[in-house]
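Researcher: Here's a chain I'd like modeled. Treat it as a single chain, no partners, no ligands.
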Amino acid sequence: MRLLHTSDWHLGRAFHRVNMLGAQAEFIGHLVGTVRERGVDAVVVSGDVYDRAVPPLAAVELFDDALHRLAELGVPTVMISGNHDSARRLGVGAGLIGRAGIHLRTEASACGTPVVLEDAFGEVAFYGLPYLEPALVKDEFGVEKPGHEAVLAAAMDRVRADLATRARGTRSVVLAHAFVTGGEASDSERDITVGGVAAVPAGVFDGVDYVALGHLHGSQAITERVRYSGSPLPYSFSEAGHRKSMWLVDLGADGSVGAERVDCPVPRALARLRGTLEDLLADPELARHEEAWVEATLTDAVRPADPMARLTERFPHTLSLVFDPERAADDPAVSYAKRLADRSDQEIAEDFVAHVRGAGPDEREQLVLRDAFDTVRADEAVREAAR
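Model: Modeled as a single isolated chain. Structure tokens:
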């Protein structure tokens, strides 16, 4: 069976101030064309269809168009909700839509109930694990201490239990939206940390033939059988090194996996440039970036006059301007933001406690801080779900 694995469409999202709806529509056309031209038997979409719980009308219309075009092909599609989606909104009409071959899986309670498709070699069971916010699904799965690993492990227990009841040789595919250990993140994914831990081990998914992951925006293989498709379009300059693509997966009769990357069309290349303003304007090596979307980091010791206007004369698609003067590490002018770079909310809070009273928090106080952050994230998840 040939699968096309994609995720993280983020319909309705902009790239800085650039409206991406046209590029998203072009991607949908590319997806449909790939399904038709490459003999795809099933499409899997692993969450974050939309960029927010209440998407703009234009994004909903594009999604509606995608559903109709996929249904017209007669190729089954299995789709889950991600942490950016409203599971309840995305799942509206799932039963009716399923009759057209578009199978929406947005409820935690249905993790162990697969969509079963057939090819010449028998059945393939597709299990949809939507984004599982631990605080919201802990009761459903009966876990005492909510956490990503605990709820995903409980969901996978249901998958393996159902699979054990099926005919010998039944192949299996799991769709999941999570941060799996070993994955490379970018700046455009929303933080899903709970209990100080965001990532779950790939071993949670043992026992199935292929795991189609969503959430991280870079296409990558955690193992041969556990892969992220990544987002089809860039949504932050941290993705400048990404090759935007989908996975074309051939699932053999024995459950073997072969995978090929299918490139996605992107409107422009991304470029992250760094140096003094005069160097960026004069360096002939930078000519190749003149039509790219540009993030420029200026290292001038003194902020130059009209930097954006001067940059856009050479790089007309400059979208982001950052000032990072090159100074000695002990210079008091080193920015607060730089000192906080790559530090978690928990670490920043602990540093603040140490700064205020001269000693960092003990284990009990660390737990209090962690519980406070988890509570805030859970409250945000509840508000998103209620929208």
